[in-house]
Amino acid sequence: MKKRNAWLGLILLALLLGAGGRALWLWLDKPIERVSIRGEWEYVSADYLRTQLAPLVQEATWLSADLGELRRRALRIGWLNEVRISREWPNALVFELVEQTPVARWNDDFLLNPKGESFAFAPLGVPQGLPDLAGPTGSGEEVLTYYRRLTPHFQGLSLSLSQLRLEPRGAWRLQLSNGAWVMLGRRQHEIRLARLSASWQRELAQVGEHIRYIDLRYPNGVAVAWHGESDFAEENE
User: Fold this and answer.
1) DSSP characters for 201-224?
2) 194-219: average pLDDT
3) What sections of the protein cross the membrane (predicted)?
């Protein structure tokens, strides 16, 4: 009898604790009333971030909120590179946000971060002074890497690149800071760039502002078109 009473006591205690725990959970699991955002941002504003985050927590409650899922959804917000979320007593969530660092414009509607990963910039504007890069879907890292390789080469000619394009068939073309286009093609890039450097230093630099495009896709020498002449041909090699 004593043993049976002891078991009944334990069962009653467990039920009471369970009921108490459930009541405590319900008491704590209140709707989220405050969202704090922390971080240092150069391009995005706190108002923009609040507007983007508000729908994510609209129906969430403090204890039941799935922080992992919230983080995944928050990372879909344009301009966010990293998101960390924590709970703050009694009914708040804290978002620590790291913004993307744009290094180039990509295919008109996107920007690239330093890893060559694309992200949408809308509804914000595009930062000034970024190079304009383009290429097939998924080629952002390749195009950015090649842009970085080309930059020192043209700096040595007192030039910079304003645009770099990788065409679907694998040909490259680029635009110099003076507005001239350079048709680099698909093959023998180093040889062609060396030929361009020699021609530029020998004679083309003096007439650079009159050049419409330079075609390097020839076995020997370069072809130059001047402003007022016909458009350049499509890449054929």
Assistant:
1) HHTGGGGGGGEEEEE--SSSS-EE
2) 93
3) none
Token pair in block for residue 192: 């062609």
- Tens-place pLDDT, residues 4-17: 445 444 444 444 34
Distance of CA 47 to the CA centre of its chain: 20
pLDDT tens by residue, 88-125: 988 899 999 999 999 999 999 999 999 999 999 988 99
Pairing of strands 172-176, 161-166: antiparallel
> Could you give the 3-state DSSP secondary structure of residue 165?
strand
Q: Which of 152, 168, 202, 162 lies closest to 182, judged by CA?
A: 162
> CA–CA separation, 227 vs 180, rounded Å?
9
